[in-house]
Amino acid sequence: MSADLSDLESAGAARIGGAATLEELRAVEAEVLGKRSALADMTQRLRELDGDERRKRGQEINEIRARLQAAADARRTEVEEAERSARLGAEGMDLTEVLPGHGRGHLHLVTQTQAELEDVFLGMGFLVAEGPEVESDWNNFEALNMPPAHPARGMWDTLYVRLNEPESTMLRTHTSPVQIRVMQSQPPPIYIVAPGRCYRRDTPDARHLPTFHQIEGLVVDHGITFGDLAGTIETFTTAYFGPAIHSRLRPSYFPFTEPSAEFEVTCAVCKGEGCRTCSQTGWIELGGCGMVDPNVFTAVGIDPEEWTGFAFGFGIDRCAQVRHGIPDMRVLTENDIRFLEQF
Ligand code: DAH
Question: In the prediction, which pLDDT does 2 show?
Answer without folding.
Answer: 64
